[in-house]
Specification:
With 182 residues, the chain is mostly helical. It is built from six helices and no strands. The chain has one domain. The two termini are 14 Å apart.
């Protein structure tokens, strides 16, 4: 039975490439849409928590915790909708943190991996690129969300291409001809 790893790496690579292209084409719309989708989600979730708290059974502590959490969620959603730029800045910082952590974990996986050396090298490269992107985002958040969206898009394109290369390499390296089987 063939490993699914090349297919999953290839799928991740294609998704990263698609994401990178979309962000390059519509950077402002992408960031605004993310802020507004977050706002809508938090408001709907908050309303659900308030409803759960008000209809909860006799446990008053749980009941008021839900109501309070729901009201805070509704407030956060309204603030995110009213001030999407602040929401985008928070998102940008979250992306920076995600990129650094993901990069460190990717490098760790490359160092500890059992794949052939060239596939590990590619994973390590993706990790280094991820950390560099995260550091740039943290170091220069004032350059504007559109510029950071471009950095994120370029990172996604490079990461997508390297993931596709890793998938191709794993796929071609593990292929067993039918007549070679015992």
């Amino acid at each position: 039975m063939e490993s699914r790893e090349p297919v999953l790496l290839g799928l991740r690579g294609l998704l990263a490439l698609a994401f990178g292209v979309l962000v390059l084409v519509w950077p402002g719309v992408t960031l605004l849409a993310l802020a507004l989708v977050f706002a809508a989600y938090v408001i709907v979730d908050g309303v659900g928590m308030v409803a759960s708290g008000l209809t909860a059974g006799p446990d008053r502590r749980r009941r008021w915790s839900y109501v309070l959490a729901g009201l805070l969620g509704i407030l956060a959603g309204i603030l995110a909708a009213v001030w999407p730029a602040i929401t985008v800045l928070g998102l940008v910082l979250l992306v920076g943190a995600w990129a650094v952590v993901r990069g460190a974990l990717e490098i760790s996986a490359a160092v500890r991996g059992r794949d052939d050396r060239s596939a590990r090298w590619i994973h390590g490269l993706v990790g280094v690129l991820s950390i560099i992107a995260g550091v740039i985002i943290f170091a220069r958040p004032g350059i504007g969300a559109l510029a950071l969206a471009t950095v994120l898009a370029v990172y996604a394109l490079v990461a997508g291409a390297t993931l596709l290369a890793a998938a191709w390499q794993l796929r071609s390296g593990r292929r067993v001809p039918v007549d070679a089987r015992p």
